[in-house]
Design brief:
By secondary structure, the chain is mostly helical. It contains six helices and no strands. 14% of the residues are buried.
Length: 186
């Protein structure tokens, strides 16, 4: 009986020694993982700022001007007056039409994904703070959120580049197209 009591006392002391080390190591991992979530939140905020930096009203105006100019070209288009420079100009200008297709849908999807991602990261952070996740699954959740952020980054980059291309083409070609239309309409 005395041996059992000593073993029990020994076990109790052993537990009292190792429990703080175990808690400290878990706490250290949680801090690291919370830091990873904070990094993801920071990256998401930067992506959202990039998405919101697009002056969508200018892009919409460029697409609207393109449609108007094309309708005027069709009205005044004469096969015998078209030269190679005009065709090249128009082919470049038509890129606005291609870029403008689906832009509204892309913007809505991106905005929805940003909102969802914010909520997911908030939930993941709360779960980590409250230690609701199994230690072996935390890295899976973090990796999944990183993957989602990479997909969102790609979508936003494509969206911003498309909008920039539309604005650039409108700035460089719109006046030339209008001048050609005016020369044909006279």
């Amino acid at each position: 009986m005395w041996n059992s009591f000593c073993n029990l006392k020994y076990m109790k002391n052993l537990v009292l020694v190792f429990v703080p080390f175990f808690l400290l190591s878990c706490s250290s991992n949680i801090k690291k993982e919370l830091g990873q979530v904070d990094e993801l939140v920071f990256e998401l905020t930067a992506l959202e700022d990039s998405f919101l930096s697009v002056e969508r009203n200018k892009v919409d105006e460029a697409v609207k001007d393109y449609k108007y100019n094309m309708s005027r070209i069709k009205k005044y288009y004469h096969l015998d007056t078209v030269d190679r420079d005009f065709v090249q100009l128009m082919n470049s200008y038509k890129t606005i039409k291609k870029g403008g297709k689906g832009l509204d849908k892309d913007a809505l999807n991106i905005q929805s994904n940003i909102t969802t991602m914010k909520q997911q990261l908030s939930n993941l952070k709360a779960d980590l703070e409250n230690q609701l996740l199994a230690q072996d699954s935390i890295q899976f959740y973090l990796s999944n959120e990183e993957l989602n952020l990479n997909f969102l980054n790609e979508d936003i980059s494509n969206y911003v580049l498309t909008c920039d291309a539309i604005l650039s083409l409108d700035d460089s070609l719109s006046n030339k197209v209008k001048a050609l239309i005016n020369s044909y309409s006279e």
